[in-house]
Design goal:
470 residues; globular; six-stranded antiparallel beta sheet; five-stranded mixed β-barrel; 11 helices; alpha+beta
């Protein structure tokens, strides 16, 4: 059988597991379960020789996170960047278009970057079987047997096998998220959950999108035709891609097509869509308690505590999730996991920075983290990865003091070049052109003290930038 082209959708913001997951660092890049992020574990599943080198489709905000996480696990992928967020319909249209340019009959599997699959070998085998049906012209989805009447999933009504005695079934109905009572009826009738993973032949998916959503098809093709290369990534044409209507592939195609099929997937799948799901996937003691990081639980049961830095304790309380980050604490009853997204929406209406940003802000060169701030001053911790450099820049309203605490900094200040070692500092007056580089083999860590009349991140003029930022 021909190899399968994996396409990983990696653009979601993951607000349902706030405060660890936020727009600046969404859940697919966080080790929610185990030591690797869900994106990394998804990539690792594709080591089977049945798969080609994967394509990762994401938005431009995550390009350097993707590259860095691939580098951490020694993996390769072709990165395709969406200039705006248009939901999964246009993304799948782009995936089909890119695959069809290789060969119209290319078999594609679309996987979500933020899901967990415990049986990785089982997924590969299912993809091979579904790939055979896809080669015949079916669009196959992986159906998961429900274990409770979830209202956050679409449901699949199975039909007869497409071939006598075969595992791939015709899909008689594809229905979107029901209420709880309807969900229970679906389970009683033998329906499956829609996992959101699809296997199809490139030309078949292209034809179905053109049939039901011609505007999406046209925009995707034009976006590919007008794409450009930037630092090794394929950047879709912004003007063309913006013409695509925002619509999920479920609504755009799967609810309408007569080519849909499903294959039952007993592979330990979870979309890790709530904190309860994270708790269920985590190791627990005899009382059902799970602790990750700095946590202590006493006289309690079914508790999940997560805290990287701050000691977090729970006493005498059952069935709760407690998540502590550097700038936010979430205390959540198991039964209200679906309300976290509503909480984040409320925080956004209050213009709370914590709704979408962590205190640690990741950049292509490393990250910075706020330590303290007050009137006319701000203190940050800056970490620069080996061999990386910040842009050549200046500020109109602030001066900066840099104190190196680890590694060696190469600092350009106007026409001067300085090497600043551990326990040394340098002063950058208002208006000077400056650039920070880590010439060493270990992380460069420094403390930055900003002083001035305006300390916003938009007080920056870039003259040169190796990452092609504006």
């Amino acid at each position: 059988m021909q190899k399968i082209l994996p396409v990983i959708m990696c653009g979601g913001s993951g607000t349902r597991v706030w405060p660890e997951s936020r727009e600046t660092l969404p859940k697919q890049f966080i080790p929610l379960v185990g030591e690797r992020s869900t994106f990394q574990t998804t990539i690792a599943m594709l080591a089977d020789p049945a798969f080609e080198t994967p394509i990762v489709i994401s938005n431009k905000d995550y390009r350097f996170l993707i590259a860095d996480q691939l580098r951490q696990i020694g993996a390769e992928a072709d990165i395709v960047l969406e200039p705006s967020r248009r939901d999964s319909g246009p993304a799948v249209a782009v995936a089909a278009g890119l695959a069809a340019r290789r060969a119209p009959e290319t078999v594609v599997v679309v996987l979500a970057a933020d899901h967990v699959v415990r049986d990785r070998a089982g997924l590969a085998e299912l993809c091979k079987k579904a790939g055979e049906a896809a080669a015949e012209g079916f669009i196959v989805t992986l159906g998961v047997k429900p274990d409770h009447p979830a209202t956050g999933y679409g449901y699949l009504q199975p039909g007869a096998p497409i071939h006598p005695g075969g595992e791939v079934l015709k899909l008689d109905a594809f229905v979107e998220k029901p209420d709880r009572e309807t969900a229970q009826r679906y389970i009683d009738a033998g329906y499956y959950w829609n996992s959101g993973n699809f296997i199809f032949r490139a030309d078949v998916m292209q034809a179905e999108i053109a049939r039901f959503e011609p505007a999406i098809a046209e925009a995707a093709e034009a976006a590919i035709d007008g794409a450009s290369k930037d630092l090794g990534a394929c950047v879709l044409n912004a003007e063309a891609f913006a013409r695509a209507p925002k619509k999920s592939i479920d609504y755009a195609v799967m609810e309408k097509t007569d080519k849909a099929a499903l294959i039952p997937a007993d592979i330990g799948w979870s979309d890790v869509g709530t904190w309860r799901a994270v708790w269920e996937l985590s190791e627990r003691d005899e009382f059902g308690n799970s602790v990750r990081g700095q946590g202590v639980v006493m006289d309690a049961s079914n508790v999940h505590v997560r805290s990287e830095d701050t000691l977090t304790t729970v006493v005498g309380v059952n069935d709760v999730i407690v998540v502590t980050t550097q700038d936010a604490v979430l205390v959540l009853n198991h039964e209200h996991g679906d309300r976290v997204k509503q909480l984040v929406d409320q925080l956004k209406t209050q213009n709370r920075r914590e709704a979408g940003e962590h205190k640690r802000i990741f950049r292509p060169w490393g990250y910075y983290q706020a330590i303290d701030e007050g009137q006319r001053y701000q203190v940050k911790r800056i970490v620069v990865k080996p061999g990386e450099r910040l842009s050549l820049q200046k500020h109109f309203h602030r001066a900066e003091h840099w104190i190196v605490v680890r590694g060696t900094a190469e600092v350009g200040r106007d026409e001067e070049l300085h090497l600043v070692h551990e326990n040394e500092s340098i002063y950058l007056p208002i208006g000077c052109k400056h650039r920070l580089t880590n010439p060493g083999k270990i992380d460069l860590e420094l403390i930055e003290v900003q002083t001035g009349s305006y300390l916003g991140e938009d007080d920056i003029v870039r003259f040169e930038d190796v990452y092609n930022r504006g």
